[in-house]
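ugh ok so i messed up the first submission bc i forgot one of the chains. this is the corrected input, ALL of the components this time, i swear. 801 residues overall. if the numbers dont match what u have on ur side tell me asap before i send this to the collaborators (the ones from the other lab, u know who)
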Amino acid sequence: MKMTKRIWIHSVVGAATAAALTSVAWAQGAPVKIGVLATLEGPFAAGGADGMRGAELAIRQRGGVVAGRKIEMVRASSNANPDVAVNAVRKLVEQDKVDLVVGPLSGGEGIAVKDYSKTQPNMTFINGGSGAQATTLQNPSPNFFRFNTEGAQWMVGLGKAAVDKGYKRVMVIAEDYAFPYSQVQGFMSEFCRLGGKVPVKAWVPLGGKDYSSVIARIPKDVDALLVVLGGADAVNFLNQYEAAGGDKPMMGGSITVSQDVLNYRGKRRDSLVGTISAGPYADSFDGADWKAFVADYQKNYPVSAGGYPSPSLFALVYYTNMKAALDALEQVKGDLSGGQAKYREALSKLELKMPTGTVKLDSNRQAIGTTFVTEVVKDSKGDLTTRVLRKVDNVDQMLGMKREEFQMGSRDVPACP
Amino acid sequence: MSAAQWRRAMNGGLRHAAGSSGQPPVRVQASAVASGAAAVDPYADSDAPRWLKFLWRTLSARHVLTFGLALVFPFVATPFFTFQVAAQALVLGLIALSLTFLGGYGGIVSLAQMSVAGMAGYALAILGASSTPISLDWPWWLAVIFAVLIATVCATVIGWLSVRTEGIYTIMITLAFGVAFYYLALQNYTLFNGFQGFQKVYPPHVLGVNWRDPLPFYFLSLFWAMAGYFAVKWIVRTPFGVALQGVRDNPRRMAALGFNVVAHRVAAYAVAGFMAAIGGVLMVWYNGLITPGSVNTGWQINILVIAVLGGMRHPIGAFLGAIIFVLLQTFAIDLIDRERFNLVIGVVFLAIVLFSPDGLLGLWAKLRRRFGSDPSVTSPSHRQ
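and heres the new structure output, hopefully the right one now
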């Protein structure tokens, strides 16, 4: 009995000493823990997985080391619901004790995580893929940074392209939440200014399966449809529009004509050729940096290992934000002391060299960046891909309006019936 | 009829029912009530107030121990564990408790309990303060009272509409109500603000305490969880509760005895709705927001999973189930490297239900039986 007790005491003391020693060691050559949140469940599961690949790629390009410190990536998952996203981020921050958070992926989540970031003033939060305008326009948080441009910015240039194609009246079919509102605003503010009309806007629920009522509402006299649906929803719509014998030309939102849809093997596939859309990147952009980035992605994530033929939007935006996080960390030599104040300073001043162009931040810590207007074409291998029509630089969040007169996109703003 | 007469009538009736159907005798309750009015109740003659007598009868070393642990826990655990694991489990447990009450004692499996909680949450967000202009900015206490009231009324209406169905049809109709409410919240903009729902619905600062801080919120949840737990324990011993169990076991016999079966069931829905509503208010305060995602089919079923996981034989089951559920939701992603963590959650649920149809409580009772001690830990035993 006595013996057991002694052994027990010894082992407790031993364990305590070991713990103390390791914590000292930890403080010296400590790895940087970066939490990454993406939607690995729910409607954006495929996009979330590719976002993770993008974030990981930025780490791999540095050999897993920044400023002499090893990078440790802690994954977290949500299902595009803001409450789940906040729970996941709270676990990263308070339980896993990460140094930085990169994420989340979708708009509503972004706003919720931004609100949470205010309760953790000594932490730095860098967006993942979320593109709601409100995140950086309404009550911006001093420690939430977004190095990707958002939904409205992504559509700048599409209005002009539509007019050039001869579209005068356009019907909008979009999912009913903040991100598509922004996308539609980005398109309409330019399209309406150039004299275009949008007689009908149909807002459909996210993850909806049945689009027949929307398809029935398409007026005969519109020239084209603007479809702002993501991933599986877009594929569903395409199927049903095809089955209903629809023949209007289409324009896509930034996440409509992503790899998710281009890889789609249904009947509607060929009729996608000629679809114009706008977004923060283009598969076929021939900048040397972009080509290097794509090659790197393909080498790290070949199709046989679950990757896409070329990186999706989510891979790019997660890559962008993770790269910004690491570049700034390199600049401050891995110094995250003093409540990360120095690090945030470096982030705000960062001029990020991206494969698509240079990105810098505005006073609300929102990116000013490049937008591409693209058209879907078929390449020699028979794969659908996009061709760049136009590249628009220095797109900011105000879409060319003054800050006073700017109104955020909603179901009814802007309007030009 | 006095309460004692009620009890006598009920116990007599139940014993008959059990005997005639050739089942083992139904053990309605722990000792005091089950042994009927004829048995000696050691506290029956004292002058102590009724609630005190009730406490004396109900409390045991187990309760004191659990209560002690619950009190000490937040001072030992990290704020993360206090808030995200413990408080969330208590809130979800309270909502699941409403289902345990309905299912375990009323024989009604309703999938609409999360929707009722969501109605309370939405009512609170609409009447109280949030970052959305739709909110009416009422004082928090008024908003809470109305939120609970509205949700309870809605629960009663749901109960009244689905009361004449049995078994799987009840599940279907309550599922339908839940899905209808989800789509209403998702697609209505004037009142429910659609997909975006309501952000920044925080608990108030009262008495100089920010009730959203982990410690105060934990105790707030603990208070209401315990209130719910003891309310259920108390209700099932009242004449109403005993009659409800009679309705569960043999509605035709109860009707023949002159009980209004429909009224008892609707009342059970109302009581469960009240509990779920309080849980809903706490849930919104916990999340700080409410969106249709909080009341979708996934969550409706999660509440059933929690209740079944813990076991529906005893009110504590709901909380045990909630703890397991929250732990898995939070930490499964650490156990398995990639995107497959939902598999772990599924396998654990499957294993528990496979090895013990009565959930964790059943497992516990089985273990106790195997090792030879008193098998009667969990109270109302066999259902038909």
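quick check: Chain A is about 40% helix and 20% strand. that seems consistent at least. The first helix of chain A runs from residue 2 to 28.
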